[in-house]
Amino acid sequence: MGNIKELKSNFRRMRTPSKPVASPHSEPCGELLADTRAMTSGLQAEHPDEFEIDETVGILFALAQAVEQRDHQTAGHCERLAFVSVALGMALGLERAELLALYRGGFLHDVGKVGIPDSIMFKPGPLTADEWVTMRSHSARGEEICRHLSSLRPVLPIIRHHHEKWDGSGYPDGLRGAQIPLLARIVQVADIYDALISARSYKPALTPHDALRIMQEETDRGWRDPEIIALFFALHEGVISKIADYTTGGDRNLEAMRNTLANLQLAVA
Length: 269
Prior knowledge:
Elements: H1 4-7, H2 29-40, H3 48-51, H4 55-69, H5 77-91, H6 96-108, H7 118-121, H8 129-136, H9 138-146, H10 156-161, H11 182-196, H12 208-220, H13 226-236, H14 255-260, H15 264-268
Helix pairs in contact: 2-5, 5-6, 5-11, 6-11, 11-12
């Protein structure tokens, strides 16, 4: 997959140290937003044989969405996560197959939560030690659910490892640094941000400013990949924050985004 510093070579011109990109319409950030929008709804448009979702995989996607819909507060989380992850992958210059894995991983990363009881999932207060053991089992459960499908093999590291930490203190395997698969690191950062700015049963939604502050604090603590975090910050104003444009309305409908994400192959050719 290549060293992340090499993958970022095509992005360095648009980075501003410690700051997001200045203008959402500036180049190349505006182009990246448009290309990402054009990508994620066109994943199957031009090569249906390559990107075909068979009946079994479709059932898993429906299962993942059912997990999300157990809580109205998480509506749209998976689709936003897929969009942000693909944007980060595009900025890193990843190949089409890796972008597809990011897209699918956005939807399937928490499919293992189907086995977590509501009493734990939606508990308004802190979890007990035993409840944390159950909650943390969802990543391994999700991998087990999906591992028999060869078409999802590239997604399995995302599902299993998106809760690992850069310093090795995460779960389920205590991986550290570059041992954590790159795609899992990408999805993790997108997942954390969306969770922070969204309300949950145990917390209110944070402002984007506060979410970025917490993400930086966690990076300084050694929990997050500093290069992925730097990339996320650089893309935040020009790309990430614009996802709100596609999540307006009471049901946070992403139909407008889906209708404009049209040509993955052209975008990454």
